[in-house]
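Subject: Sanity check before I submit

Could someone independently write out the structure tokens for this chain? I want to compare against mine line by line before I put it in a report. The sequence has 232 residues.
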Amino acid sequence: MKSTKSLFAAFLALGLSGLMASFTPNPEKGKWETLFNGKNFDGWKKWKGGPITGWKVEDGAMVLMEKKGGDLLTEKEYGDFELELEWKISERGNSGIMYHVKEGADYCCPYTTGPEIQVLDDKRHPDSFAGKTGNHKAGALYDLIPPNDTTVVKPAGEWNKARIVIKDGKGESWLNGKKLVDFPTRGSQWTQMVANSKFKQWKEFGTFDKGSIALQDHGDKVWYRNIRVREL
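---
Independent answer below. Compare away.
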């Protein structure tokens, strides 16, 4: 029979082994990571710093309550990823989800660096009828590619489920279970698309392979919840 001392050492080793197996300081690639805990803004920051104001947590959602709340960015940067979240927009409301956003003194706003998937009240907001062939409507790669179906978006005041995939130089925008847009994220086709858009004035727009995910303050009330991401 093993001594009490030997048994204790074995037990301690087993316990430490189990603890180390269960502790991962950073999520592994392919593992879902919760980006919003439904209680506070841990893991998020305001564009160019300062306390988060104008946004609040309400019924498990982050809500832009007033103008000039500022855009929210993830503290962590992501390259290739899959993002899922739910959004709800107010009547005549406008917002957006941006990726590969970079901060810096040369950049006035997240949209000068990070491409945007549109969040919009398609029926009432004037931007829905601007742009080219619907490329400002909900689910669009904003000002670049329109959604292939404008009927899947739910009206203002109802929740929509968005999914964004960025991988190996290609992107996808999904809304309520349907893929609306396929797009390149680099290469000659991307360069030509940007050259024909409002973003051509910003030389570094869409040039980064990694950056923050951003939620836009466009001055209208908007809700986001159930936000999660996995690195690919």
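---
OP: Matches mine. For the report I'm noting this point. The two ends are 50 Å apart (CA to CA).
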